[in-house]
Amino acid sequence: MRLVTVVLILLLALIQYPLWWGHGGWLRVHELQGQLAQQTQKNADLKLRNERVQGEVQDLQSGTAAVEERARYEMGMMKDSEVFVQFVSPNSAAPVNSANAPGANASTRGQVSAAPLRVVPNPVSRSKEERRAFEKKAAKEKEDAKKKQGG
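-> structure tokens emitted (151 positions)
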């Protein structure tokens, strides 16, 4: 009787081994469930990113508003009738050309600065004729101001 009990216990142990530690055992199933949860979360994140990118692509393809916004904020472009306003920190000696600045493609949208304001009426994007006309006008205004002070 004792021998039968020992044999049954050994058989039970042999049957339990694959259940717990085998290829399809409970421990392996638990590990795979964890991996499945991680992959599901990763897929959901990537799906959200794909939806955002798809929306951006549709905006860029469907109209000019998104293209214009990108050109303004990432490339520093502007219309001919607009005035370029640049915020200069008090520590900088010379204004920084936004088109040539390192990290010029980094967007500063939504950031507010308390730095002094500098208006640049003659940005780089204007044509030579417009710059010459503006320089002549500015020189004439300086001469008129000197005449008023002196005369």
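Residues 1-92 form one domain.
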